[in-house]
Amino acid sequence: MATLWQDRVMGEAESEGASGAATGATAARLRRRALAGVAALGLPLLLASLPVPADLAPHAWCFFALFVGVVLALILEPLPSAAVGLIGVTLAALLSPWVLFSPAELARPGFRAPDAAVTWALGGFANGTVWLVFTAFVFAIGYDKTGLGRRIALRLVQAMGHGSLRLGYAVMLADLALAPFTPSNTARSAGTIFPIIRAVPPLYGSLPNDRSARRLGSYVMWTAFASSCVTSSLFLTALSPNLLAVAMIAATLGIEIGWGDWFLAAAPFCVPLLALLPLLAHALVRPTVRRSPEVVRWATSELAAMGGLSWREALLGVLVGIAILSWIFAGAFVNATVAALLVLALMLATGLVSWADVVGSRDAWDTLTRLATLMTLADGLNRTGFVAWFAAGLAGWIGDVPPVWGVVGLVGTYFASHYMFATTTAHTTAMLPVMLATLAGMPALPQGPTAMLLALSAGLMGVITPYATGPAPVYAGCGYISTGAFWRLGAVFGLLYLGSLLALGAPLLLR
Q1: Pair 186, 280 in one domain
Q2: pLDDT tens per residue across span 109-118
Q3: Residue 114 and residue 350: Cα distance in Å, rounded?
Q4: 410/486 Cα distance (integer angstroms)
Q5: Closest CA to 481 of 223, 276, 273, 187
Q6: Whole-angstrom distance, CA of residue 380 vs CA of residue 409
């Protein structure tokens, strides 16, 4: 009896200790969030109180201050990132007479700021890229429910699963194989690669939103995302902004760039990056699973237990094949997002997924909200004239430095300015014409090579933030890469990509 009493007392003490530790951890987490919230509110207020820079409208400076606060909140995470984006858009709409609209707009007859503000605030939800990202999550649901994702993942593990590094190279090569034919990295990486590799980490006991995520999932997901950014720059047809950039260069500078010209300029830095990328990610992300030959044997037995391909798996394979073929060959007739929504509709109609599955996908709706609101906020920088002011100041600065440093400054600033944009298309549309106009007015700089370097950076810069390009929100929201880790890895790989472009690509173009 005494022993039972002692065991009970010790159990209660341990329970109280665990409860106390949990309470302490919760209090520390709340303090950290409170400090993060104060910083995210305080910095915009401080910026807004500073003198407005010369030649910049006051409302544009105030909007920039608000945008900086949102970015800081995304990094520090006082709230989930989707909530941060929604709050930022709401504040901008609420304060629109002071942060969004110029005095001339407000004075225009018939202009109603509240109506114009809500139209602007909800504009991101009408963007095709946002819905293409959303369908990637629904595709993943289909892969899970039919078992096709597990079957393909088991095949991948069976062929390349002896070690995590070999898996990394397999994922990179899969993206590389699709890249020349898919002018949308969102369709290629988020819509095709992600739903498949999402089933691989659980086979190794690596689960999302869990301590085990670092076992393998973080490495596989980051490798897939970082690879898609390099392949997007390697081929002219791997990213639609590449084609847009070529058209802009031809119109502004009269320089024609063909598919072969692009590849020859990109290969000297993209090919080494791809060759080293899985190894570098392996060193930085450090999966705890290094070699696991027993998993290969287990995967073989699991495939045998699954038997032949079911009709549901075969049907999903056909539907996904339709989407991929549409993305590759039918871009002139069918928008990539419409093709993805068509396949989603067919998945619903055939019962491969249910509407309850779609409604219940927390990750899909969270990502949609986050990306839509961030795209809207990034658009505000262009709308208020901040981007044009920034580019004009850049042109004045570059005109006073030697040509070599002028090229480095122009390309480096163009690359870093992507922190202000939520898609490469928006960045190319808003910033590249200004950069090219600046370049055209500076005959001392080599026109063709510098323009090519600017265009080649479009895919690479997608790696820097969780919102920088279409696939980024998918990988950032998959549960395997924390927000802080994503920002840190994005900064490291961004510097690596930019350094490779300037150190390996620029000398060959400028010789």
Answers
A1: yes
A2: 989 999 999 9
A3: 43
A4: 26
A5: 223
A6: 25
